[in-house]
């Protein structure tokens, strides 16, 4: 179980917590037990917050370039959309690829990534839009 530390005020357990990953994760009060602890299984199944701006969204897509070639395949786009909470990541990846693949090579290059980011932001994958 996770215990409170001096960085997590006991009176405000639902604050943004950055103690488990490099991405801040929101823990609602319902996850905490009566002693102010979060059971480990509750944390491991919890999703991080979606990106709040287009730069974070771009970084999310770049993170899914699994082979490091600077190109995003349909499978890599699908994994990225799945991580962003898409209920139909395969369909969303195909649509993004059709929308942004200017040269028709079936991959998204760094130059084409801006169009994917705009597409994803337009369809609600950024908070505050």
UniProtKB/TrEMBL annotation:
The entry's protein name is: EF-hand domain-containing protein
Query: Mind listing the GO molecular function terms for this protein?
Result: calcium ion binding
Q: Which keywords belong to this entry?
A: Calcium, Metal-binding, Repeat
Question: What's one Pfam family here?
Answer: EF-hand_7
* Lineage of origin: Eukaryota, Viridiplantae, Streptophyta, Embryophyta, Tracheophyta
| Lineage top rank: taxon | Eukaryota
Q: Which organism is it from?
A: Lithocarpus litseifolius
What InterPro entries does the annotation carry? EF-hand-dom_pair, EF_Hand_1_Ca_BS, EF_hand_dom, EF_hand_pair_protein_CML-like
Key word Transferase present: no
């Amino acid at each position: 179980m996770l215990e409170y530390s001096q960085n997590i005020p006991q009176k405000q357990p639902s604050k943004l917590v950055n103690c488990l990953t490099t991405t801040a994760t929101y823990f609602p009060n319902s996850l905490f037990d009566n002693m102010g602890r979060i059971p480990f299984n509750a944390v491991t199944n919890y999703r991080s917050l979606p990106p709040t701006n287009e730069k974070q969204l771009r970084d999310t897509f770049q993170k899914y370039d699994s082979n490091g070639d600077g190109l995003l395949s349909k499978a890599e786009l699908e994994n990225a959309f799945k991580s962003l909470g898409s209920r139909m990541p395969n369909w969303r990846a195909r649509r993004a690829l059709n929308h942004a693949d200017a040269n028709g090579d079936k991959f998204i290059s760094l130059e084409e990534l801006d169009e994917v980011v705009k597409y994803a932001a337009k369809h609600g994958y950024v908070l505050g839009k």
